[in-house]
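Subgroup meeting minutes
Present: P.N., E.W., G.H.
Scribe: E.W.

1. P.N. recapped why we're keeping a running log of single-chain structure predictions: easier to compare across weeks, and new members can see raw inputs and outputs side by side.
2. G.H. added today's entry (104 aa).
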Amino acid sequence: MPTFLQQYQVQVTWTPAGPGARWGTITAEILGGPESAAELHCGDTRWGFGDGHGRTIMRDCPSWEPQYKTPRLFTEWHTYAEAGDYTIRFSYGLLEGSTTIQIP
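Output recorded in log:
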């Protein structure tokens, strides 16, 4: 892992739509590090929901400039077909984070 990445932490959380719900919101938040980093400019966003499904968002961005602010908050919705334990994975460029959840 490049040294500059050690300044950052990615926190991934699951918020079910209600008690016993199998669908809800997944949030990834980038914490720490500078507000602007050329190494994180226009990173691809990847979600893995732990059930064989995922999503990749590839951006087409202009060249990095110092006033560019690194995105900090990412949100997705997902529905799980079956009860079980799932590891949700998120990445933005070279940053990664994950959490394990239990779906009733």
